[in-house]
Write a sequence for this structure.
């Protein structure tokens, strides 16, 4: 067994730099733990000649051509960190075809088009590491594939987008509206110039697609994940939640039922004493419920140069150890063997039972409350509690909040559609699902 393993990095952005920093700063630590040296032979980036970076100065080969990495026979592991769909998929597939092991943090590609990549890795008997694709530096992929392998994982709850969590935290703490907090988040670098993927739940949906595929021995297509973001959450909703002893979080939720699975992303009201309600600012947490171990939570920094770089390097080390033992693909790509793959239909969001928070905007006049309650009753929706402002003026448009008992989502949709078309509800009703009450 050779004493050094060569790696090549494609993409030298935030995560690429963090990966190189971890590899170089902790080179001796890694060697002490593994018995070999991880040597960064080549870094490829289209703008490599424009980058001034102390860590990059330690790399001998710098190139603008990714194929200087992919086609180099001396490179054992290719690290894809450019993100996006194309040419990232081509780079990964060509690396696999060249019998090279691959590490990526590209959650969007794996969620949308991962099946081709997973299959190619299996057919070519190479390893595919993607720990950095979910939860940044928090170990969750390997936990599902190996540490929980003896368990039947039943449920997953995750706060897995730091931008959305930061915004909801500041809306609560500073009593600011979404748009104002978003501007603050962008100025601090916590939100992109175009924050759509983060605040509308797309990034979170990519991640829960990957987690639920591993947990439930299936492949969950991204397009089957229900996605709803936080841009319509108002400060008044945060305040009402607080009055109810709750918080609003953007949750990724996956559950295995007898004949189907639920995979969804949406704002969720949870009790303040729930452990996930304690996850604040840009931090992430993933909560697993399994049959034998019961509940485990994994918490930490879910993004950033060094946390994600740390996860990428952990994959490199795992692959290198398997190479040393001459047992590549020791663990199946998704943690389960191909011949035992199960396919579960994803349950329609309107068929899922949940409690609901409903905020209506209605004119303050006698009978309105009872009319709303009457329509809810018509659709078999039972009211748990109701809140209305204590001080109002006749004719004023006021928020009326109803908390329901568990009911089918379709019942709520039908009731809200009817109420929003009535003459006593003025604006579109805000509907937020509730867990744990």
């Amino acid at each position: 067994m050779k004493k050094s393993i060569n790696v090549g990095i494609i993409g030298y952005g935030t995560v690429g730099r963090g990966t190189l920093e971890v590899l170089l700063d902790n080179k001796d630590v890694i060697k002490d733990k593994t018995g070999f040296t991880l040597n960064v032979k080549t870094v490829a980036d289209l703008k490599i000649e424009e980058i001034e970076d102390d860590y990059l100065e330690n790399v001998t080969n710098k190139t603008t051509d990714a194929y200087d990495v992919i086609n180099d026979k001396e490179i054992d592991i290719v690290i894809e960190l450019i993100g996006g769909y194309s040419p990232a998929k081509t780079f990964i597939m060509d690396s696999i075809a060249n019998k090279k092991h691959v590490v990526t943090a590209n959650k969007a590609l794996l969620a949308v088009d991962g099946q081709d990549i997973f299959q190619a890795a299996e057919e070519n008997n190479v390893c595919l590491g993607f720990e950095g694709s979910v939860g940044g530096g928090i170990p969750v992929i390997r936990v599902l594939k190996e540490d929980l392998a003896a368990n039947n994982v039943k449920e997953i709850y995750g706060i897995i987008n730091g931008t959305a969590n930061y915004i909801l935290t500041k809306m609560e703490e500073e009593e600011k509206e979404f748009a104002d907090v978003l501007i603050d988040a962008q100025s601090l670098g916590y939100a992109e110039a175009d924050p759509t993927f983060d605040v509308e739940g797309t990034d979170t949906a990519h991640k829960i697609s990957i987690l639920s595929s591993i947990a439930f021995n299936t492949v969950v297509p991204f397009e089957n994940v229900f996605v709803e973001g936080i841009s319509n959450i108002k400060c008044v909703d945060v305040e009402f939640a607080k009055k109810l002893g709750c918080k609003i979080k953007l949750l990724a939720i996956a559950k295995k039922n007898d004949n189907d699975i639920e995979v969804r992303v949406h704002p969720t009201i949870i009790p303040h004493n729930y452990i996930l309600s304690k996850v604040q600012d840009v931090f992430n947490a993933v909560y697993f419920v399994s049959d034998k171990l019961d509940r485990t939570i994994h918490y930490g920094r879910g993004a950033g140069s060094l946390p994600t770089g740390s996860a990428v390097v952990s994959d490199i080390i795992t692959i290198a150890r398997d190479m040393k033992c001459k047992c590549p693909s020791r663990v199946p790509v998704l943690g389960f063997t191909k011949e035992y793959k199960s396919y579960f239909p994803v349950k329609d969001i309107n068929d899922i039972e949940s409690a609901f928070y409903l905020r209506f905007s209605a004119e303050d006049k006698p009978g309105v409350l009872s009319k709303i309650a009457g329509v809810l009753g018509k659709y078999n929706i039972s009211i748990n509690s109701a809140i209305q402002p204590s001080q109002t003026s006749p004719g004023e448009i006021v928020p009326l909040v109803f908390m329901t008992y568990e009911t089918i989502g379709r019942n709520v949709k039908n009731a809200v559609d009817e109420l929003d078309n009535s003459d006593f509800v003025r604006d579109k009703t805000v509907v937020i699902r509730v867990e744990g009450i």
